[in-house]
Amino acid sequence: MAHAISSPASISGAGSAPSDLAIPVRELAPWLVLGALLALSVLVLISSVQGAITIPEGTAIHEWVHDGRHLLGFPCH
Amino acid sequence: MRGLSTRTFLVHGLLAGLLAGLAAFVVAYAVGEPHVDRAIALETGAADEAAGAPAPDGHDHTHEHAAADGHSHGEDAAVSRTTQSTWGLATGTLAIGVVLGGLTGLLSAAGLGRLGSLRPAASTALVALLGAVSFSLVPFLKYPATPPAVGSGETVDSRTALYFGFVAVSLVAVVAAVAAARRAMHRWGAVPAVVAGLATYVAAVTVAALAFPKVDELGTFPAGVLWDFRVASLLTLLATWVVIGAALTVLVDRTWRRQAAVEAQRAFAASL
Questions:
Q1: Quick check: A18 and B118 CB within 8 A?
Q2: In this structure, which of A31, B61, B175, B265 has its CB flanked by the most CB atoms within 10 Å?
């Protein structure tokens, strides 16, 4: 067949400009909100809990992720 | 049809992040841990010398003070060094890898079709690059990683606030840069867009870097160990981002090619 369906030329030529692929903001927003909040929570847990943030009591979490804090560039002591 | 949906991007991102976390662990363990151990040995040595007396720089890491501080690095630590350098380290790199990978996936979904005429693979790679630069590399230039024994427990609050404050400014700057680039793209084209984006980001983070205070708690810590540790830390961050960017780009490109092939087939069938 003259229609080579797997060649890159026909992919871009299949009548779809990149902007046609854009996902509507309405569809994206809830994922981004939850994703950002979740990312922030994990970031705080790994980087700052029982360090800069002194809750919860104790040092077990701090000790456990200690090397990761230093090597991932988060302020630690 | 299952194509490049938000779900696809998130799944690809989480997978890329998992691989990145593993890669970061391997690099951190192989390249970084020897220097962490050297730093702790220096700290413990200094503490033993100054036994009973506070360390000259007011550092509260000595064994005696560690009891009050509830935090020490030696073999008497609550979590053993072996555990810290293996399971503990892996916990940190995997969690950060998955979170950064997933978020990069979602942001790539937002960037799809919105970054000039870039195709999905290229726009995804660009989003990962912007993430690496704004979240890790530029903040590292201003507030580089410090080994154990550098940085006091008393200043960890302010150091953390400064670090994440700078990261926040950097992230806002990169969002502003993308907005400026898209406007310039609309009016003048691709090259002015790249220039406008770069200029916006560089200007914003330069001002921020000059405005944010310097943190210097090195004391007499040996420069050689510090340099080796920082290179290892940078390599860990680079490993994370390179794997996120590469794996996510490959996965997105594969999905897009499949989607395009299906669409082409349908278009062909419809034309019969």
A1: yes
A2: B61
Alpha-carbon torsion, ordered B109, B111, B116, B122, to 10 deg: -70
| Residue with tokens 């220039």, as numbered in its chain | B195
Sort out which chain A residues have CB atoms less than 8 A from B91's CB and list them.
Answer: 46, 64-65, 68
- Does residue A70 contact residue B146 with C-beta atoms inside 8 Å? yes
Instruction: With CB atoms and an 8 Å threshold, state whether A77 touches B157.
Output: no
Query: Which residues from chain B sit within 8 angstroms of residue A66, using beta carbons?
Result: 73, 79, 84, 88, 148
Instruction: Give yes or no for residue B15 having a pLDDT over 80.
Output: yes
Number of compact structural domains in chain A: 1
- Structure-derived torsion over alpha carbons of residues B221, B224, B225, B229, reported in degrees to the nearest 10: 120
Q: Give a yes or no: residue A36 inside a domain.
A: yes
Residue of A nearest to B61 (CA): A77
Distance CA B50, CA B7 (A): 57
- Our CA-based measurement puts residue A37 at a distance from the nearest CA of chain B, in whole angstroms, of 10
Token pair recorded at residue B181: 């680039």
- Find, in chain B, the residue whose alpha carbon is nearest to that of A38: B99
The chain-wide mean pLDDT, for chain B, equals 89
Q: What is the CB neighbour count within 10 angstroms for residue B207?
A: 12
Cα gap B175→B171, rounded to integer Å: 6
CB B145 within 8 A of CB B76: no
Average pLDDT on B91-98 reads: 96
Q: Which domain covers residue A56, as residue numbers? A: 23-71
Domain ranges of chain B: 6-149+222-271, 156-214
Report pLDDT for B55.
Answer: 44
Q: Could you give the ipTM of this predicted complex?
A: 0.85
State mean pLDDT over B249-272.
94
